[in-house]
Write a structure and sequence with these properties.
It is a single chain. Helix 3 links the parallel strand 2 and strand 3. By secondary structure, the chain is of the alpha/beta class. It is 35% helix and 11% strand.
């Protein structure tokens, strides 16, 4: 069994989202999903996938590419919303509209039950985010909550805790993914905006570890044992040195965080997963197996194609150089345990 844990479906056209908005919001300015500060050379999405509308907008085409061509058995759909918008209520309505569209176009018509969904919420509106989780958590095909990587504060801060508490209460992991269509963008680096796309692509995933470090140090995983996070944009190739550093500082100053009752790295197994990225890991396949042993990466990684982005990756490329046990964990077991999937059905 192969589970693709990172797929971004799109509306055919930006204006299509208005069909799912209430009258007061239909005429508001809504950023296009392709409106981003940093565009990859040649475009953000695979050029061969453009047709009648955006790539990834036709369920039949996506199913053919993922299930027939790539051999996946399940695809976790995590649609982009429109990034960070100053009007937080409009942002919350956009998230709700994306969720309704996902159910209407992708999940309900899928009789094969191979498409599974993400409840997109707006962290800037904690009360609204909790309400949206409560509205859709009972849907049998919604398997996680989705938030943007870009954030005004690290996700370990108490202001976000009601959202994580609601997700954990329903057994839903929280997926963090770089968003598109930004109205108000936050800098991709700790010191401001990068000048080039390579700078953006190299530094943006580092924000995962700002979120992760604060979730651990602020005690979020300790207070909510069922809370799980999925960092879907890679960056796991720097996991080992950053966790070593976090462990070292915790040992030296643990009296300042008495609620962190174990090494920070010890929280990873129960609470954190990463999706694979075409930009991460050793370029020499002969080093891949040994490299995966550092920080038990084989237990933390889930295959994600990142379809339909330019960096879309097939399962064979992701597990090249790994041993059989590592391949099975990355392609199937880790995601199966995270989302409660067995071949042919949800647990």
């Amino acid at each position: 069994m192969i589970i693709d844990a990172n797929v971004q479906p799109h509306f055919r056209y930006n204006s299509e989202i208005r069909r799912y908005l209430a009258a007061p919001h239909k005429l508001r300015a809504i950023p296009d999903v392709e409106q981003q500060w940093y565009q990859a050379p040649g475009g953000e999405y695979r050029q061969d996938l453009y047709g009648d509308g955006y790539p990834g907008s036709n369920p039949e085409t996506v199913a053919r590419h993922l299930f027939e061509d790539n051999g996946a058995d399940y695809a976790i759909l995590n649609p982009l919303t429109r990034g960070n918008i100053a009007d937080y209520l409009l942002n919350s309505r956009i998230c709700a509209a994306v969720n309704d569209w996902l159910v209407d176009i992708w999940l309900e018509p899928d009789t094969s039950n191979r498409f599974l969904g993400t409840i997109r919420v707006n962290p800037e509106d904690a009360r609204g985010a909790v309400a949206e989780i409560e509205r859709l958590a009972g849907h049998p095909k919604m398997v996680q909550v989705g938030v943007p990587m870009q954030s005004r504060e690290p996700y370990g801060k108490p202001v976000f805790e009601p959202i994580w508490e609601a997700a954990a209460a329903h057994g839903l992991p929280v997926a963090v993914h770089i968003n598109g269509g930004n109205g108000v963008d936050y800098a991709p680096t700790f010191a401001g905006h990068a000048y080039t796309y390579p700078g953006y692509a190299a530094f943006m995933p580092l924000n995962s570890f700002v979120h992760l470090a604060t979730l651990i140090i602020e005690g979020m995983f300790g207070r909510h044992p069922g809370l799980r996070f999925v960092f879907a944009d890679g960056g796991y190739d720097i996991l080992t040195p950053l966790m070593w550093r976090l462990d070292t500082f915790w040992m030296s100053m643990r009296d300042q965080t008495p609620w962190v009752d174990r090494f920070p790295s010890a929280y990873l197994q129960d609470h954190v997963r990463f999706c694979t990225s075409a930009l991460d890991g050793p370029t020499d396949e002969s080093q891949a197996e040994r490299w995966m042993d550092f920080t038990d990466k084989a237990d933390l990684l889930m295959y994600g194609s990142n379809y339909p982005h330019w960096s879309t990756t097939g399962p064979d490329a992701v597990v090249a150089g790994l041993n059989d046990a590592q391949r099975e964990k990355v392609l199937c077991r880790n995601a199966s345990e995270m989302y409660g999937l067995v071949e042919g059905s949800l647990l």
